[in-house]
Known about the structure:
The complex is a heterodimer of chains A (379) and B (267). Chain A is mostly helical and 379 residues long. Helix content of chain A is 68%, strand content 0%. In chain A, helix 2 (42-55) packs across helix 5 (82-115) and helix 5 (82-115) crosses helix 6. The relative contact order of chain A is 0.15. Chain B is of the alpha+beta class and 267 residues long. Chain B folds into three domains: 4-46, no CATH class; 55-72 and 143-176, Alpha-Beta Plaits; 74-139 and 180-261, Alpha-Beta Plaits, CATH 3.30.70.20. Helix content of chain B is 27%, strand content 16%. Chains A and B meet through helix 2, helix 5, helix 7, helix 8 and helix 9 of A and helix 1, helix 2, helix 5 and strand 6 of B.
Amino acid sequence: MTALEWGLPVVAKYLFGGLSLGAFVTYYLWQGFGLKTFRPLAKLAWISAAVWGLLIPIPIFSHLGQPGRWYTLLFDFHWTSPMSWAGPILLAYLVVVLLNGRFFFYPDVVLAYRNAKGLRKKALRILLITRPPQGPIPKASQVGLKVTGALAFVLVLSFGYTGLELGILSSRPLWANPINPVMFLLTGLISGMAFVVLLWIALDGRVEAPRAPGEKTILTSFALPALLAFFLGLNAVFYVSLAYSVPEVVQAVGVLATGELAPMFLWVGLGLGALVPAVFLAANAVLRSPRRWMATLASGLILIGAFAQKYGFVVGGQVLAEVGGEVPSSLWPTSSGIIEFLSILALAYFLFQVALWISPWRAPKPAEREAAPAPEVTA
Amino acid sequence: MAASDCNSSGETTEGDGVSNPSEGREQGLTRRDLLWKGTLAAVVTAAGSSVLLSEATAASGQGHAKYYDNFPRHTEMEHRWAMVIDLRRCVGCRACTVACKSENNVPEGVFRTWLKFEEVGEYPHTRPRYLPLFCNHCDNPPCVPVCPVLATYKRDDGLVLIDYDKCIGCGYCIEACPYGARYLNPVQKTADKCTLCVHRLEAGQKPACVATCIGGALTTGDLNDPQSDVSQLLGRYPIQTLKPEQGTDPMFFYIGLDGRLVQEGAP
């Protein structure tokens, strides 16, 4: 009897990857595709994509037996192993996203830099990369913005490799299917989008605050409920077809449908985390006056559901199909594993606080613009 | 589209010298365009994944048909190590497990060799059945291609080994093994498994489990040598392997795995 080989850290890695993916796509829907609905979310979406992206390696380090050798993932590339793709893809994604943010936030960062003091000013100076401009704020490079945006979009879609990591393992009947990459992309998209909406409501659309411009457009958007409906439909097709497969696959599906993991995967993951939010968000979309609390609740449930789905799928896949060896003694994480996971979440909270403190995500007030006139360029 | 154009409240900021990139976009990209591009991206991603998966599946199934017919194999190599496990001779004493732990200093709580116990038949006519389990040193090992840092490799003599100085302990090979033969060594924090006592083989000795087996159920040898014990046994008895449907082509062969052989046929 042993502990789970792939437990909470692996789930956290997939979860953070998904959140970064969904957040970046939300940002890119405005920045790249120009969808106005997502315009108010764009800044927070970019920040979320960057912070979750930076957090992806943390659970990987936590999971590795030899975290000090992580760099070999970059040097000993093994193309037949999707896990090996993680090194180059993640590194490239993080670099490109951060560069894209430099172009996207440039005018705001320059303005904020002129108004900032102390540590924040130093941090903003680093974010500027180049020397702060004198006089009127110049235009950020649109070519740079578009190229890095498109590149990051392609890279984030290649996060589907996480689905392949599990999908190629024919030793695990639950995991070994070609639809995994699509499912992983879809759950990531939904959870990341929900996170951005939740963050936006928490920061900009608070109950006591006056209604933020663009709020109705976001609350009545059909994007999330439509994605959730598609996801539920795909799940239904997927699991029903697997249920008529060979006995060991049926057994593996049974673990999620009726076994020990059913409350986690089926009821919390798909029911509470996908079906209920889909109903709430669809109702909001057709209501004349959309309810903020319904969007908040739905987004929160989606995040809980994303975790539950991933946990159920990752752990459920390890329960069956081995001839010998050890069977996991428990399908649930140990107390130390939970503490580790909560610590990583606490780190995420801290990083978000830092990111929101440094970055000029809020629109500058006219007074701020006037209070910090650009230094005159002397002849 | 620059950040200044869209503050977090959705306001449009003006007069900061930054152009409004949304100009012209509303004419540039319609909802139909977005749907078309999105669908195209999804189709490309799904198609790419499917192709990769089908190639991986095809690769894992290669060589499956040749498996039972071509002994001796790999004659271009000096040795081709294999093991035959004669289940008719196994008494379930677990000496192999103990010897392996002792020889290889296997930490507490993990094993390189297991013995699975099953009771077959219907009460009162039941009998015990023992199944020793090891790394099968597959000819087509699924653990090797998935290793992200090339720490797991297959030698020319057929042994599948781990470079402990390279392994990062990600556990991918552990998940890939259909036999559950690998584990994460709790001391050295890397993947670990049976090496067929490679250090003993190279010194001309038998693996610890084979040397200690009191029933003589375990036999190792060189498949390239027609006179070796394994070649003789393989030529004399029907053999089975574990999970042949996985296409791994194990080099560990079982005699009497399905109980078809009668005791009188024992060598």
